[in-house]
Every structure is written in structure tokens, then in C-alpha cells.
Amino acid sequence: MSAVAQQVPLWSLALAKPGREFGPTELILLSGSIPPGLQGSLYRNGPGRLQRGDQRVGHWFDGDGAILAVHFRSGQATGLYRYVQTAGYQAEEQAGRYLFGGYGMRAKRLGQAPKNAANTSVLALPDRLLALWEAGAPHQLDPTTLTTRGLDSLGQTRALPSYSAHPKRDPLTGDIYNFGVELGQKGILHLYRSNAQGQLQAHTRHPLPGLPFIHDFVLAGRYLVFLVPPVRLNPWPVLATLKSYSDSLRWDPNQPSQVWIFDRETLQFVSRNETDPAFQWHFGNGYEDQDGSVIFTQVRYPDFATNRYLAEVVSGQTQTAAIAFLWQMRVDPLTGQVLQSEPLLERGCEFPIVDPAVVGQPHRHLYLLLHRHGVDPARELFSGVGRVDVQTGSLLEADLGAGRYPSEPLYAPDAEDPGRGWLLSLVFDGHQNRSQVWIWDAAELDGDPCCRLELPEPIPLGFHGTWRAYPPG
After folding, report:
1. Element (H, E) at 88
2. Left if phi > 0, otherwise alpha if psi is -120 to 50, otherwise beta: which for 146?
3. Rg (CA), the chain
4. Where are the domains of the chain?
């Protein structure tokens, strides 16, 4: 093997070829056993195709969405993998080439809307699964077969202008909160509240200052909290097809981040303030403290270099340093004033999640991906899984070994023991060019996984997922 070939990171193998679909397949048990109380479905979404012919996409966010489902029942696991059959995907499949612009790809002609890639996350509802992409409406899929049914309007007569990939579900009421950003001559922030069945119950619109870039938000007690970084879109090069959306975003370090607070029941504005400039893709969780303040966690970057890093991922070689740490913030919701802001974990990390039963409420633990000690974070992807105690900052860490790359960990409550939970991650083993599902006892993350299952095909590295528990009985 040449020296050049040896320098290719193992994670790049997971993106070198489009993912190959497979139908329902009983997964091979590599080690351990499936916990009897693990009864439900694991869903993962991500860009399954990054290339057509000899053309690669412009950014990792441009790949066509493909869903992995793993159904756990009675000690067995059945997996399947399907592309979301969006209109853009079907047209490009037939043409054999790219026909549309996207996040990192210029539009092909004036006035052309970007392709809805349906590639970022999933929302599991009682009768359907939604594939989410934040610049457009969700696509509805059959939760068992992953057959695409078309766009989902959440019970409205017309499709929503946009519906982000980061909805928050209140575990006490089942209500689902989300937002969307509509871009035009002026931006509009749409806030949504749906019931547990996914039917829209409330919708408000709020004018935006300029065209800010907003990716995620926090449900914290009675409030919805947004931290809006100083990243703004210049729309004219996009409209003129001179630049992509990604290339038209600008970071301004001389401007502050903005804190926006909304009432979760009315979806109306409460307060706005400013804080130090920073960027985040994702928040961990939030809640109201006893003194009325709001506390939440964010994975915080010092600037917007992370966008360039994620564009480099498509090439299989990254070189931009874009390291984020876990921060905890305390805010006065009535004024938006930041009362406290400090790092909670000074270790490169991303994709924070909590037990779904504590979303928007006080909690003890948060789970995330980590950079392993001794790796160059500018060239390696995340290859560790950790559990952070948000009260003490202590870290429990799973060591997967070099060359193994986990996806965002997902918490699954045990169906038989309400005090127990499992942590699941889709792991790409670069040494074998294979994908596996690893399962840990969430309380013993620093031990060996209790179960490892092999998938029939390697799954391209992706973004977000969810766990859907089966109803009792």
C-alpha cells in the first residue's frame, strides 16, 4: 500500500460509495445478546448518496437522504435501508446526473428551488415516520417498510414552508415543538406546536432581522429558547445562481449572538438580548430552575469554520480545525439576559442527547460523541461515546478503539424496567468496512457493549435518528 493510500482516513470508506438499499434482514449477532426489554425501532437518517457519475456533491448536507430502520422484538433485530423517494431524487435517478442545487450546490437555473434532500433527521409518530430536512416540508414514510408516501403537511391543506430537523417532544404532554425559517426579501421564523399524533395545533410567524442561520433550539420548561449566531445569508448570489447557499453565508465576529425567548404555549415573543458571538449546530437540553431562570447546554464553536470542515468531509480528507466544547448557560427568560455561561466539558464533542423522558426538564445525564484522545480533530471524525453528568461535569466514556466511528447515540428506555435504559449507536468499522449496531447499558457506558449486531451493508455516515418504543401489549 502506498504512503498516500495509508493517509486516507478509515472513516472516508463509509462515504466513498453510495449506500446500497436492503430489505428486511435479520441481523447477525456478533457478541452479547439483545436486551429483552429493548422493544421498539431504531431509525437513522443521513446522506446515503454523495456522488452521481463522476460528480460529487458540494457539501455533506447535499446527499440524498436514506433511512436505516432496525426493528427489535422478542430478542431479535431486523434491519432495512431505503432511500427517501423525494421528487428530486427520483428525477436525478432517472437522469443519472444532478439536476438541482442544494445547500452546497448552486441552482442550475434562475428561480429553481433547492432539492429537498430529506437527509437530516426523523420524527416518529404513531402512524408514520417523517424524514426531516430543515429547508422544506417533511416526507412521510411507512414506519415498518420505509416506503415513501409523499410530503406531509401535518394536517394542513398546504405544505409547510419549512420544518426543521430538530423538533422537541414534551414527554409530559406529547406535544411536539418545532420551527422553520422562510427566506425571502425578509426572513420569517415560523413556530409550530403539534399534538402527539403530529397534527398542527398552533402556528405563529415572527419577522427576522436580516436572514440569520438557525439550526436548532431548546425546549426549557415554559419556554422555547433560540441562540442566533452572527451568521447571515447574502441571498443575491444564490438567486443569481452564482454561489451556493453555504458559500453565501457569512460569519461576522464583530456582531453578537442573539438570545430569543418565546412562550411555549402561545408561541409568542417574550424577550430578546445579546451575548458573546459563538456558533452551535446543536443544543443538549434545557429546563427552568427553581429561581425562574432557564438553564441549557450547547455544543459551542468559536466561529463558523465548522461549515468548511463539513464541506471537506465529502472529499474524504479534512483539514480545517473546528472543535466544539459543551457549554452550560443560564438565562433570565423575561429579559433574555445571560446570567452565566461556562464550559461544562472541555473535550471535542458533538451530537448531544438526553433520555426522551427528561426533555425540557431537570436532568442528570447527557450523552454525546467525543474525539478520542490523541487524534487530530481536523482530520478525524468522532470516534468515542460519552456520558456527561451535567451537575458535576464528570465524564463516563466508551472506548470503541481506533478506526471505529459511532453515530449520534440514542437513548432507549427499557420496556420492562422503567429505571433502566440502553444507548444505541450505528458504528462504522473502518478496518472491516462494515456497519454495526452497538448497544450499551446507559449506566455502564465505560464497559463493553452488551450487544453488537452486524448490518448486511455498510451504511454511509449520517446525522440524526430516533427511538420509537412499541406500545405495551
Report:
1. helix 87-95
2. left
3. 21
4. 3-469
Q: What is the pLDDT of residues 221-253, one digit of tens each?
A: 999 999 999 999 999 999 999 999 999 999 999
H-helix segments, 299-392? 305-312
Cβ neighbors of 346 (< 8 A, separation 6 or more) are 325
The predicted-structure confidence for 262-273, as pLDDT tens digits, reads as follows 999 999 999 999
Nearby residues of 297 by Cβ (< 8 Å), 6 or more positions away: 283, 284, 285, 286, 326, 327, 328, 329, 344, 352, 366, 390
User: So what CATH class is 3-469?
Assistant: mainly beta
In the block, which residue shows the cell 452572527?
Answer: 230
For residues 228 and 416, give the distance between their C-alpha atoms in angstroms, rounded to a whole number.
Answer: 41
What is the Cα 92 distance to its own chain's centre?
Answer: 25
Length of the chain: 473
Find, among 296, 172, 311, 274, the residue nearest to 223 by Cα.
296
Give the tens place of pLDDT for each residue, 7-27.
789 999 999 999 999 999 999
Cell matching residue 232? 447571515
Which long-range contacts link 234-240 to residues 24+ away (Cβ below 8 Å)?
235/183, 235/211, 238/106, 238/107, 239/110, 240/110
User: pTM of whole model > 0.85?
Assistant: yes
